[in-house]
C-alpha cells in the first residue's frame, strides 16, 4: 500500500504519458484531489480512470445545477470518499455527503458473486480466497473518519446495506457512488437510490466490468433491463455510470 502522491513522485517516467492529458497535469484539480488523500491507498491505471471520472461527474452535476444530497455506498478507508468530498467543496456543493459502509468488510457473497468465466486467470483461487476471507475490505471507522476529517459535511452511516438506509427514505440525491463489490448490496443500492435520484443526477458503479465482481455486473444489468436511465456509459477500464 502506498500513498498515490508518493507513487506519482517516485516514478515520473512511468507516468510520463499522463502529462499529455489535462485532467492529470500537475496543477489540475482532479489530479491533486486524487493525490491528496491522507490515508493509505492503492494506485492503478484503472483506479485513476474511475476516480477521475468521479471528480468529473461531480463537477458536471454541480455545473448543471442538479439539486440533492450526495451518497457513497462502500467507503473502505475513504479514498473515493475524499475524491467526491474535495470535489464537492471545490464546486461549492453545500449538500451533505452520506457514507454507507459496514466498516466490517464485505457482506456474505452469493452464487452470483462466484467467478465462472474461464477467461479469468484463476477463478477458483479468487472464489475461495477472496470470497471466503472474512472481513475483506474491513476498515476501522475511526481511522476512516481521521482520513476524512477535513470534510466536515460527511455523515457516516455505519451498518449493513440495506438496513442502514432506514430513515433516509425522504432524501433526494444528485450524485451516488456505489462500490460494494457484490450482487446483493449493489442491487439494494440501485433499488434504493435510483427512485430518489433527481433528474440529471448520476450514479457511478465502481465494479462494473470487473471480472472479479460478476455479481455487481449482474445487479446492474438486471437493473438496466427494467429501468431506462437517459444515459449509461461503461468506462473503458472498469466502472460505469448512468444519468437519470
Ligand atoms: C472495495 S471497498 C470500497 C472501496 C472504496 N470506495 C475506496 O475508495 O477505497 C467495498 C466496501 O463495501 C463495503 N460493503 C460491502 N458490502 C456491504 C454491505 N452489505 N453493507 C455495508 N457495507 C458493505 C465494505 O465494507 C467495503 O468497505
Fold and architecture overview:
- With 244 residues, the protein is of the alpha/beta class.
- It has a single domain (57-243), classed as Rossmann fold, CATH 3.40.50.
- The protein contains 8 helices and 7 strands.
- It has helices spanning 4-10, 29-35, 45-63, 79-91, 123-132, 141-147, 183-193, 214-226; strands at residues 69-73, 97-101, 154-158, 173-178, 197-205, 231-234, 240-243.
- Strands 3-2-1-4-5-7-6 form a 7-stranded mixed sheet, with helices on both faces.
- The longest helix has 19 residues, at 45-63.
- The chain is globular and about 45 Å long.
- It starts with a helix and ends with a strand.
- The model has no long low-confidence stretch (mean pLDDT 90).
- The chain binds S-adenosylmethionine.
- Residues 74-77, 79-80, 101-102, 105-107, 137, 139, 160-161, 179-182, 185 line the site of S-adenosylmethionine (SAM).
